[in-house]
Design goal:
By secondary structure, this protein is α/β, with parallel strands linked by helices. The protein has a domain of 211 residues: FAD/NAD(P)-binding domain (3-Layer(bba) Sandwich). The protein is built from 13 helices and 15 strands. Helix 1 runs parallel beside helix 4. The longest helix has 30 residues. The structure holds flavin-adenine dinucleotide.
């Protein structure tokens, strides 16, 4: 901790990625941190996640990078094709920076690493404790609201916020891939924007025996019941029609109950702070996962917040600075996800048709290609801004 920085008593609500990462960063800086989590046995449930170079840089700052990378699957190529195998999305991390990669990860791996790190840093973890009223935390110098997309607390701050539910979502499953058939490519297959299959190498599940992949199948929310009624064989037929090679994965699905349904929110806040409260993670900026950024953004929130508090400013000014520093980046990714999602998940036909014709060609052009790669890796700060996030600076922001 810098000599100008007082020790703060910090309450963090929520032990998801955002809450745990923030707790770790602040505890590593010498603050007294308590995390309140409503579940008695917290764990991270959900589909595999893609960690971008931005998220990997934040993990270095958090001191968990090597442990997490050892359990993930390096992804060096994103390849999305039409049912006729015409490439639509074709992005290689190497073309952004040699040696760079994304990391397909089982959520449990990141959760366990953050949980252990929080314990090692002396964070007080209080489980089975739902915070219903922010006023109960008024004894703390700083309250971090990290209670996820359906936050019940951000409304109590008085901060402006819009929360819109996307009409589409996805079902997903984590499946064994002993032969590592999908190598280091994240695959997608599209039929217009009405059907999308995704298969992502996901590394190893905690305690698991062998490599796994995450399978995603796009669905319109109001068709979820219809999909359930149509049954397992109808689902498998549709998937195999798009990608016949995944029969070995589908054989592992014995019932539609083996697939989990997820919906996406689009949360936008003009400012993330009051004098003493700050909203981070999905509670502040949930997006559709089309660009695979949510966890990365949450980890970056933690690193930037800690850096703002390190400057020795009063809490209110440090939080003001936090909003200034994060707004451009977060609004860009919210907007990009919002605009891209209907190209891949909607009932539209003209836009996906144009997508199939021009997207791959466009990303071969120098300016568009560079914008695409910078967006993917998580460093873009705006549509026109030439300034990108400096990852080397970020990852050096540990407790030192
Ligand atoms: C299908 C799908 C795929 C995705 N893929 C990717 C991807 O590839 N890459 C990526 O980066 N992101 C991805 N995401 C997004 C990512 O999952 C989220 O951005 C991330 O999990 C958000 O973490 P969080 O900590 O903000 O919220 P959460 O994980 O929701 O954590 C919130 C925590 O707060 C607790 N809580 C809530 N209310 C209270 C309360 N009142 N008191 C105490 N505790 C409370 C909850 O129990 C929970 O533990 C995906 C999301 C979905 C749905």
């Amino acid at each position: 901790m810098s000599s100008t920085q007082p020790t703060l008593s910090v309450a963090v609500v929520g032990a998801g990625f955002a809450g745990l990462a923030t707790a770790c960063m602040l505890a590593r800086c010498g603050h007294q941190v308590t995390v309140f989590e409503k579940f008695g046995k917290p764990e991270s449930l959900g589909a595999g996640i893609l960690i971008q170079p931005s998220g990997l840089a934040a993990m270095r700052a958090l001191g968990i990078h090597d442990e997490v990378v050892a359990h993930g699957a390096k992804v060096d190529h994103l390849l999305g094709v039409t049912a006729r195998q015409r490439p639509v999305v074709n992005v290689r991390y190497q073309r952004w920076q040699p040696g760079s990669f994304g990391l397909g990860l089982h959520r449990g791996v990141l959760f366990n690493a953050l949980w252990r790190q929080a314990q090692a840093c002396g964070v007080k973890l209080v489980t089975g404790e739902e915070v219903r009223d922010l006023a109960t935390l008024q004894a703390h110098d700083l309250v971090v609201i990290a209670d996820g997309t359906r936050s019940s607390l951000r409304g109590q701050t008085g901060l402006a916020c819009s929360d819109r539910l996307y009409p589409w979502g996805a079902v997903w499953a984590v499946l064994r891939d002993p032969q590592q058939q999908y190598g280091s490519t994240l695959w997608q297959w599209y039929r217009g924007a009405r059907q999308m299959l995704g298969i992502m190498p996901t590394g190893h599940a905690p305690g698991g025996q062998g490599p796994v992949v995450s399978l995603f199948w796009s669905l319109r929310a109001d068709q979820y019941r219809v999909w359930l009624d149509a049954g397992l064989e109808a689902f498998k037929r549709e998937v195999l029609a798009l990608h016949p090679g995944c029969d070995g994965l589908l054989d592992q699905i014995n019932s539609l109950d083996d697939l989990t349904w997820a919906r996406y929110h689009d949360v936008v806040m003009p400012a993330y702070h009051t004098d003493r409260c700050v909203v981070v993670g999905d509670a502040a900026h949930a997006t559709s996962p089309q660009l695979g950024q949510g966890t990365n953004l949450a980890l970056l929130d933690a690193v930037v917040l800690c850096d703002c508090l390190k400057q020795g400013l009063p809490v209110a000014q440090a939080l003001e600075r936090y909003t200034q520093l994060r707004r451009g980046h977060l609004h860009f990714y919210g907007q990009a996800s919002r605009w891209l999602t209907p190209l891949f998940q909607s009932d539209l036909w003209l836009l996906p048709w144009l997508r199939d014709l021009f997207m791959n060609l466009g990303s071969g052009l120098p300016v568009v290609g560079s914008l695409t790669r910078q967006t993917l890796v998580g460093v873009r700060q705006g549509w026109l801004s030439r300034e990108t996030l400096e990852l080397a600076k970020l990852q050096a922001q540990d407790a030192a």
